[in-house]
Amino acid sequence: MSPPNDHHAFDALPVVGIGGSAGSLQSLRSFLANLTADTGAAYVIVTHHPRGERSLLPEILGPLTALPVQMVEEGETLAPDRVYVALPDDGWILCRGQLVRSGESAPCPENGPPHPIDVFFRSLAKEVGHRALAIVLSGTGSDGTLGIQSVKSQAGMVMAEDPDAAEFGDMPANAIATNQVDYVLSPADMPATLSAYLRSQNHRQAAMETQQPGLSPSLLRKILNQVRLRNGHDFSAYKASTLNRRLERRMDLRQILDPQAYLEYLQTHPEEVDLLVGEFLISVTNFFRDPQSWSALGELLPTMLQKAASSGEEFRAWVAGCATGEEAYTLAILIQECIADWKQPPAVRIFATDVDQAAIERARVGRYPASIRQDLSESLLQRYFSAESDTVRIGRVVRDMVVFAEHNVLQDPPFTNLDLITCRNLLIYLERDRQDRLLALFRYTLRHQGLLFLGPSESLDHQSEAFAVVNKESRIYRVAEGSLKPRLLEMPGPSRRHRSYPLQESAVTPAMAGGDSLSRSVESLLALQFAPPAVVVNDRGEVVYVHGRTGRFLEPASGPVRNQLLEMARPGLRVTLSQALERVASGDADHVSEEVLVQTNDDAELIRLEVQLIRSPKALAGYRLVALHLVPVSAEVTTSNTSFKPITSSEGTDNDGVEASLKRKLEALSQEKQDAVQEVQAANQALQTLNEELQSMNEELQSSNEELEAAKEEVESLNQELRSVNAELNIRVDDLTEVNDDLKNILDSTHLATLFLDEELNIKRFTPPVQRLIAIRPSDIGRPLSELSTKLNYDALLEDADAVLDSLSPKEIKVQTNSGRWYLLRIQPYRSTRNVIRGVVCTFQDIQVAQGVARSEAFLRAVVDTVHEPLLVLDADFQVVSANDGFYRTFPLTPNDVEGERLFGIGDGQWDNPDLKLLMAEVLPQQQDFHDFELSMDLGDPEPAKLRMNGRYLDVQGGPAMLLLTMEVQRQTTMPLERTARSPDHG
Fold first, then answer.
1. What is the domain extent for residue 775?
2. pLDDT by residue (tens digit) across 636-672?
3. What is the value of pTM for the model shown?
4. Residues 901 and 763 in one domain
5. Is 349 inside a domain boundary?
């Protein structure tokens, strides 16, 4: 035993595990013969070997390589450039750099522990990580298939022998089928590729130790952009360390040391992008991974399932990142174990999703290597799996629970109203912000008291408010009491189109679109009103037409161009104009006329304002006409003078005029101020009311918006669910179509007349030969059989079919057609795969030839029995096939003594004559006859009788060769013959 090395030194030691069956000797010889002695790796060979027998592999392989080859000893510490041979008796594993016997694999009496290569590969991946290398050589079965998946999950490297060149191709073929094999080579070519891969790894390790720069963040973004452009997958949420490690492994496999060179390689080799995506997608799992955690979950499921059953709801679960389906089927098996004996179990729907389409396709098929037996108990295997060659397939009762769908949990809408989410070992690959986002998403999708089941390396310490711990060791969490669903952020996945709101309707009214007709109508109206400066406005106060020079009274407001009349009114006009428009709009008056002092430039002018509701012509009905009449100065003076007494002096007259003018201005300003105050107060009150209404409307809109957001999320989730179910149904429809085609071809190839009837004895399906017996056409599908005429001399078909439906006991009847042809009719129940009776199946087998043979045989038998002389028919071994009545009348023997026995042994051996044997031996091979052979025989007379015997070769068409033996008895004395009736058994 070599001394133990430092464990830190072992961490850097590459370990190559080589697995093969007993038939892989030639592959091992070829591999070691081409292996150099300076790779720096340790090699461990694990092969299938009969238990208890000594292995000669070290003696056979030692002379082929410069590396020392030795048998493994307990506690052996691996050393570089050395080959170890491990027999599978007790299941060798790697533990802390040493090879030890596994305590997990119980020894098998005949062939060692089950799948010892898987056991070693798994321990190799766990112990060495990315320095693990697995090679699968020639062998039968699927050993190694699960083990290489563990190696790949730790970023190790996998090789497999070319199955076409291997002596036994099952093991490498099963490994390749997992899509986890990096190289498929002949054993002679493997060492060179292995050495180049190890050199690339060592170079990268040395660069890390000297702190040379690796992949820069900008270069990593460019590589991820190449992936996104080709495959649509965005891996920017993954941890940079994980991506770097996977990228470096691909670079080692391609033997490219410079990251920039690898980016250029990606740009020129699109297939490498697909392989890189497969490297990033870690589709590795197994049944009942971490059994203790699944056991803890199994204890919680009955309560949740019972709650769903009592409420009549569907139990819904989501397995995010399901890979090849083992975890989803594990959950389905646990649930089926809970509800198997329930009288009214709840409906169960498990959504299993992953972004890896190839993994989803494998999961849908549900076929796995037989080596999964080490992860499942024998009872579970028998109940939920069926054996298919060297694989096992999941049963239908479990398969029907699961819906598989391609789905990106970080981008696509989630499933909702879930009772359970399992997301194991996905969070550890994501950045912290994406973990938080994903956990918030899970909280949103879970129902009250819903469970979240995580992997052993994941926790919810930073999400303690949303979830409560149920079982910390098993990483099972429940939605916390009182926690509210977070608002679901919009998923960033497939591009979403923003809503395009319809454009607001233009303020242009139908009247404005009238063009020329509007102009003519307005001009006609203004002409009737002596055409003062005027405008036409609509019910919203918007100017739709302007006539005359209105600049003295109206001016555009500052800011964006608007056509509101009140905003254009000059000072002094706005209040009165607003009141007049309001009076006309409220219906108080159709016409309002007011005098108002308007501030124009640096002066004030008195004008008469008229607002009129237009009723005709029809094109302008409902509009308002606003006319602005300038009051003449003489009128102004006359009006003002009427309020004052005359003044005698001219100076007094002038002063009185000025005073009166100022007084009018002051009164006008006072009135305008009062009106403005009232208008402001009314406006404030209206604004306050409007503000309250707007606040109320805002709250309602916020509530409606939240409801719409929730409805939108529900619809997106439901849409995603429907897409998943639709994809699943499409797969099943394709499978059913293929099965239906197979069944149709099978039925057509048998040329057997077959008729399928439902429970009501209506036509379901038939094969073309049925048309020779029943007048039926394809359009008769669904018609009752009683409505169709037959060509059979048989009227009880319906009664017999109905009797079979009642008793479920098959019937066989010989029936004859009108033309005299015979058929054997078999009627048996039609059973579905769920053992439900769905009708009957009637098959008509043509037995006309058989009937003819039976009649011919009976006819010939009757002829033979009428012959008085004894006759025997013998087969090629001289056994008696049949004897006629003449034989039994002559010899004191019974059919039990004769038929089926050799001629030379019946009776007292009286036919055991060497000459007779010689003659008879020449008859069959040479197809000859013999005549008049005499044989003395004691028949109970005083003197022996003489038998004159003749033999003839019988050529029975389609049957074996036979011999016909006739006998003529000559007695010495005349004895009365006793006639005996032949027993019915003689036939």
1. 751-846
2. 444 444 333 343 444 455 566 667 667 766 776 776 6
3. 0.54
4. no
5. yes
